Amino acid sequence: MALMDSPRCSATTPRLKAPASARATQPNFRATPPMMSPVGGQATPTPRVVYSARPASPRPARGGVSGGGGSRRNVIVLVLAGLFAACATPRATAKASAPDAEGVWRSRGYGWLLTVAPEGMRLHHETAAGCYPDPSSPLELKELFGAQEPGPSEDVRDFLSAPGETRYRFDRLTALPDRCDTPHVWSAVELFDVFRATFAEHYASFPQRDPDWLARLDAQRSRVTPGMDAHALFTLFADALRSLNDAHVELVADEASSDTLTYEARPTGTFAMLEQAAVAMNRPPNEVQREWMRAYRDGILQTVLHGEGHHVANQRVLWGFAAPRVAYLNLLTMGGFVAGTEEATPTLTQELAALEPVLDEALAAFAGAGALILDVSNNRGGYDAFARAIAERFTAQPRRAYTKWATGAKDVPPQVFTLQPTSRPSFHGPVYVVTSDVTVSAGEVLTLALRALPNVVHVGTATRGAFSDMLVKPLPNGWTVHLSNEHYTGADGEDYEARGLPPQRPLDVFGDGKDLWHAHAKALRALADSLPPPGAKSTP
C-alpha cells in the first residue's frame, strides 16, 4: 500500500505481526511459512489474510470438541491497528455506517453476513452447513468494512477498508436469518460438515491441486461420530489438508489445545532439502534453517556485494553493487521493515516510512547502473501493497499489473490493479528479477507485477504458486481454518496458482541440495558476471 509518504494510495489490505497471544487477525494477510531471521533466527511469518476473526470465546461443546480462543503455539496471529487512516484520498467514499448502509448484507463469495447498525457492525459466517457469529468487535469490523462504494443498483454495495483496497460486494437482505443467532452446541459431525462446506464453497484451487479432494473427504465422514474427541477430529482435518500442498492452507487449534493439536504442512522443494540436511546432520530443523539463512545473508554481503553492501530496514533489505554497473537489491519480505514489540504492532504507515527512504537511497545510488538484479529468491511474502509500491519504482508509465477475483463472487467484475510511475527515485533500465520455489505470496505478486514491465526479465526457478489471499474462517468450536479463495491473473491473463510463475531465463538458485549453504551466492555471482560490462549497451 502506498500511504502518507507516497504520491499514491493503491493497495490490497494489510498484514502485520502480533504476539502469539493476540486475539485478532484481519484482512488480506497472506500466511506463509515462518522465516528465520538471518541474524537472530526469530520466526517471522508474514501472512496475508482475506479475513480472520478474533477466535471465539470458550463455549461448551459435545463429544469433547472443545471451544476456545487464541492461536496455536508458534503461530503469530495478526492484528489490524487502524492501518488505513492515512490512506484517505479526496475521492468521495461514503462511510459504511451511514444511514443508507444500515441493515443486513450478504457478500458475494467469502461467506459473510454483515449487519450494519448505529451501534456498530456484526459479522456472521454462512455455509450450507450452518451459520454462526464472528466474535470480532465492531471496531475491528469497521477497519475492514469502514467504507463503501455504490454497486450497480441501490441494494448492492461494495464494502472495503479504504479507497483502493480490495472490494467486497454485498447484496442487501431484509433480515439476518434466524438460525444465525440461535445458541447451538456443535457436535463433531456438524463441525465436519462446516469444515467441508467451507472448502467446497470457497476453495479456489481444487482443479490445480487435488481435483478429488472433496470426494476423499466425504469418504471420511463415516469415521466421525457426535462424540468424537478433539484430537481425532483435528487429525482427520489436518491429514486431509496436507494433500493440497498449499502454503495458504492452515488449521489452527484453540489456545487451550495448541500444545497438542498442531498442523504442519509437508515441506517440499528447498524446504524439503533443508529438512533432509537436518536429518543427515542429526540437528533440529529450525537450527539448520537459521544457519542456512545466515549463510544466505553472508553470501550476499561477501560474495555478491564484495563486502560493501547495506543490510537495512530491520534486516529485510540488502543492497549494493554486484559489479561496477550492476546494481543489486534483495527483499526478504514484503513487510516487517519495522521491528514490532509485544505491546505494539507497526502500522502500515510506519512500515512504508521505513521502506521508502531505503528504496530512495538505493535507487539514487543505482542511477548510473547499466542493469539491476532484484532478488526475491528468499522472499516469504507480506503485503501486496508493498509489492506494488516496489514495482512502481521500475515503471515509466502506467501498467496493468494483475487482476483478482474471489471464488463464488457471482457477477462481480475482476478488480484490476495498476502500477503508476512514482516521482521518487526509480530505475527504468534492465531489471533481472530472481525467484525460487521459496518465493511465495506477496513476493510472487511483486514478480507478477514486474512481469508486466517491458524492461524486466524473470530469472531463476518457478515461484511457490500461492498467490491468493487467505480467507480465514473461524470454526464454531474456536478452531480456525485458512484457505485460498481468490484468483490472481497476470497481465498475460494467466493464473499461476499452484504451478508457480515460471522464469523466462532459468537459473538454479539453490542447487540440488549438495551445497545449500553456498549455491545462492554462486548463482547470483554468476548472474552478475554474465550481465553486460561497463559501457556496453544493456538490454534485457
From TrEMBL:
Annotated spans, Disordered: 1-40
UniProt-recorded Gene Ontology molecular function terms: endopeptidase activity; serine-type peptidase activity
Listed GO CC annotations: outer membrane-bounded periplasmic space
Superkingdom in the source lineage: Bacteria
CDD domains documented for this protein: Peptidase_S41_IRBP (cd07563)
Biological processes per GO annotation: proteolysis; signal transduction
Leader sequence segment: none
Domain Tail specific protease: 341-508
Family matches, as InterPro entries: ClpP/crotonase-like_dom_sf, Tail-specific_protease
Protein name (Swiss-Prot/TrEMBL): Peptidase
Species, as recorded: Corallococcus aberystwythensis
Taxonomic path: Bacteria, Pseudomonadati, Myxococcota, Myxococcia, Myxococcales
